Amino acid sequence: MTDGAKVFKKSSPNGKITAYLTRRDFVDDLTRTWPVEGVVVVDHEYLRGRKVFVRVSISYRYGREEDEVMGLNFSKEFVLTKCEVMLKRVEERKAGGTVARLLEKLGAEACPFAILLPENAPPSVTLEPGAEGTKERRTVSGRQEGGDKERKKGREEDGVGKKF
Asked: Which of the listed ranges 79-83, 87-91, 143-147, 148-152 does the model predict with the highest average pLDDT?
């Protein structure tokens, strides 16, 4: 009988890169922060010698989306960390728990990853409005992004910039 662990999936629009996360909430308990763990499945024919990276960033929104006109954005992005996903042979992959079950289910094209968030990563963020600022609530959202190294940032077919 299975324990029913939740897995979060996000694919690029062309379906060539898919990321599976074991959780979306990462707790900072003052001694350590839970790592970002998951599995990336990449079509090796599509990859053709390029590298795959996973990036964790946070976005600060300080205005309403409907007020964004003519390319003016009311949000900023802060990259916490990034790492290359090493595409290893099946016998070299080591993982436990939910990631191990995902590797068994997804087959030879699946590759595990784990990213430790930096010690100086903010556990929470407050954006203070200016003197003439409004009292509207500000939001912060986390993102995990993936894509190959030779593509430009923001290209939809690589899955870059997709929220989880």
From this structure: 79-83
pLDDT tens track for 31-75:
777 888 889 998 888 888 888 888 888 877 777 777 777 777 777
For 142, phi then psi, to 5°, come to: -95, 155
pLDDT attached to residue 13: 92
Alpha helices in the chain (DSSP H): 44-47, 97-106
All domains of the chain, ordered by start, with CATH? 8-155 (2.60.40.840)
Specify the higher pLDDT residue, 149 or 94. Answer: 94
Amino acid at 96: G
Question: Edge-to-edge, what's the strand order for the sheet holding 110-115?
Answer: 8-11, 17-21, 36-42, 110-115
Beta-sheet pairing, 17-21 with 139-148 = unpaired
Give the E-state strand segments of 43-151 in sequence order. Answer: 52-61, 75-85, 110-115, 139-148
Residues β-bridged to residue 20 = 9, 39
Closest CA to 99 of 157, 23, 1, 154: 23
State the CB neighbour count (10 A cutoff) for residue 49.
7
